[in-house]
Amino acid sequence: MKVARFRYGEADHLGMVDIADATITQIESAEPHPDQMIAFIERALAGTAPVPDGEVLPLDDVQLLAPIARPSKNVICVGKNYREHAQEFARSGFDSSAGREQQAIPDAPIVFSKAPCSLAGASDDIVVPEALSASVDYEGELGVVIGRRGRAIAAVNAYEHVFGYAVINDATVRDLQARHKQWLLGKSLDTFCPMGPWIVSGDELDPEDLELSCWVNGELRQQANTGDLIFDIPTIIETVSASMTLEPGDIIATGTPAGVGIGFEPPKFLHNGDVVRVAIGGIGEIENRIVVVSS
Length: 295
Ligand code: MG
What we know:
Blueprint lengths: L1 E7 L2 E8 L4 E4 L9 H10 L10 E3 L4 E2 L10 E5 L3 H10 L17 E5 L4 E2 L5 E4 L6 E2 L2 E7 L15 E8 L2 E2 H6 L4 H4 L5 E9 L9 E6 L2 E7 L7 H9 L9 E3 L21 E6 L3 E10 L2
The site of magnesium ion has 7 residues, from loops.
C-alpha cells in the first residue's frame, strides 16, 4: 500500500494512493489523531487498518504533506553511509566529524538528527533565510518509517519493526554543519527535510535493492543503489535502538550517495529558484524548489 497525508481544500486527510489511476482515496474513518499517519500505522500493524472509504481525488488536485507530521523524536539520520560519498565529504573540508585521523570510511554508523520542524511535503519549497543561503546542499536518501515499537532490536529482527519507506532530501547548510561541529543546526532548518511523496509499505519492495537518483534543475547529480549502503538498514536499526526506543512513525534517513554539491570542485551549492528532484524506484519522487527569504 501507498499511504499519504494530503491537504484538500482547507483540511488535512489521510489517503491511499493508486499510482496506475493517479488517484488518492480518502480514508475518512482514520482517527482524529494529531498525527493520523502514526495512528494508521499502529492499526495497520494490529491488522485493523481503516480502509479507503472516502472521496476519490486526482493526485494532481491535492497537496501532498510530509507523511509524518510530528514523529516522537527527531528524524534520525546516518552520515557518510555510502563509500564514495564518505570520501568526497572527507575531501571537501566541511567534515567536522572526521577527526584528526581524517578517517573517511566510518567504523560504526555516524548518527545525527534533524528537528521535526524540518519536515516538509513532496512539493513544498525549501525555505532558506538569506543569511544562511551561501552553502545550501542536497542529499537524496532512502527514508525508513518505523512501525512496531522496540528497543534493543537485533539486526535479524529489524524488518519486523519497519512499516515502510519514503524518499527524503536531507538538505543541509554546510557552513553551519562545519562551524558548529555538531550537525544539528545545519540540518534542522524549517523545511530542510522534504519527505514523501507517500509511505510505501515494506511488503511492496526490497529496500536493499532500490535505485536512487537526484537531479538539480534537471542535471543528474546522484545515482546509486541502496544495496551499496556501508551500514544496512538492520544494522542501523540495531545500533539506534540499542540506545533509544523506536516508536511507530519514527523516521530514519539512511544516508546519501556521492554527488552532493560539496563533492564538486568548486562546490555546486543550491541557489534561489533551483529545483531538486529525488526519485527512488518503487517509491516515487519528491521535487522541491529553493526559495531564499530575507529573514
Ligand atoms: Mg544525509
